[in-house]
Design brief:
binds zinc ion, GTP Cyclohydrolase I, Chain A, domain 1, 2 domains, five-stranded mixed sheet, elongated, 7 strands, GTP Cyclohydrolase I, domain 2
């Protein structure tokens, strides 16, 4: 399998791991890098005025390093690997949509979480993908330092690259802890981004159908 998508520029931290089991794969940061990471966290604790030697913090550097490694494991993941061979020839030509895909990411400006839902739709052009693969594509890009706008575009482009469909639409609705915790915005504010390709961009009827499905899903939620 070869890599087909745009986002591999960020994959310098570790080699992609082959196979669809990479969700359970070892985190990309290990060995000496892990020890270095732990030392940095220990120093970080000192810099914020903590005592890294007090009991409650003794194992914190190790935990944080492991956690960060896991939370950014998308750098070691590759779309072609998570999709695997789950692309099928199919003449179905109506919109396929997976709504309310949970996503967790971290903003690259503050390294704080943002989280919410992704809605992905496409109109096949001879090929469909196993539905469970769409959340996995989200995961590849969400588990990196991100801005929501780029994340949305990367997921749309990945679906485009994998399926060459007639069109793709992606909407993400997220809450950003860097805004909520720092009191920059009202705590309930959500950021909504979209990325459209092909007929979702060019054809108003397709776009309207997509957006009404998305906003239909939003009604009744907070
Ligand atoms: Zn931020």
């Amino acid at each position: 399998m070869s890599s087909t998508t745009a986002a591999e520029a960020a994959a310098h931290m570790a080699k992609p791991i082959s196979g669809s089991d990479q969700f359970e794969a070892d985190p990309p940061i290990r060995g000496d890098r892990m020890l270095e990471f732990e030392n940095i966290i220990r120093r970080e604790l000192e810099l914020i005025g903590e005592d890294p030697h007090r009991e409650g913090l003794l194992k914190t550097p190790e935990r944080v390093a492991k956690s960060m490694s896991w939370l950014t494991r998308g750098y070691a993941m590759d779309v072609s690997d998570v999709v695997g061979d789950a692309v099928f020839e199919e003449e179905h030509a109506s919109m396929v949509m997976v709504r309310d895909i949970e996503l967790y990411s971290m903003c690259e400006h503050h390294m704080l979480p943002f989280f919410g839902r992704a809605h992905i739709a496409y109109i096949p052009n001879g090929k469909i993908v196993g539905l469970s693969k769409l959340p996995r594509i989200v995961e590849v890009f969400a588990r990196r330092l991100q801005v929501q706008e780029r994340l949305t575009e990367q997921v749309a482009q990945a679906v485009q690259d994998v399926l060459q469909p007639a069109g793709v639409g992606v909407v993400m609705e997220c809450e950003h802890l860097c805004m909520m915790m720092r009191g920059v915005e009202k705590q309930s504010s959500r950021t909504i981004t979209s990325a459209l390709r092909g007929s979702f961009k060019d054809d108003a009827k397709t776009r309207d159908e997509f957006l009404s499905l998305v906003y239909g899903s939003s009604h009744g939620r907070r």
